[in-house]
Amino acid sequence: MTLLPVMVIFGLSFPPIFFELLLSLALFFVLHRVLQPTGIYEFVWHPALFNSALFCCLFYLISCFFS
Fold first, then answer.
1. Average of pLDDT values for 6-21?
2. I need a surface site. Which of 41, 42, 61, 62 has the fewest CB within 10 A?
3. What is the pLDDT of residues 23-48, one digit of tens each?
4. Which residues touch 32 (CB under 8 Å, ≥6 apart)?
5. What is the DSSP letter of 7?
6. Residues with Cβ within 8 Å of residue 5, at least 6 apart in sequence
């Protein structure tokens, strides 16, 4: 059971997972901007896969936090 209720904005209902996705996307962009100048992407085999895995891990942590 999630702590967040279904939000209705202008007649559109948004499930709680939508806001978890938005929060994880915002955290991903911040973390990506922090990691990019450090040069960590030079050690990563495939940056797109690394970014996908990073987003999935952030989403999992946020969804565990809110449930």
1. 88
2. 42
3. 999 999 999 999 999 999 999 999 99
4. 51, 54
5. E
6. 16
Q: Is-contact 24 66, C-beta < 8 A? A: no
The residue extents of the domains of the chain are: 7-66
Query: Tokens in use for 1?
Result: 């059971």
**pLDDT score, position 2:** 58
Angstrom distance (rounded) from CA 56 to CA 59:
5
In the chain, which residue ranges form alpha helices assigned H by DSSP? Answer: 16-35, 47-66
The mean pLDDT value for 54-62 works out to: 96
Q: Please, are residues 55 and 21 in contact by the beta-carbon 8 Å criterion?
A: no
Q: What's residue 66's pLDDT?
A: 81
Query: 8: which 2 tokens?
Result: 């209705």
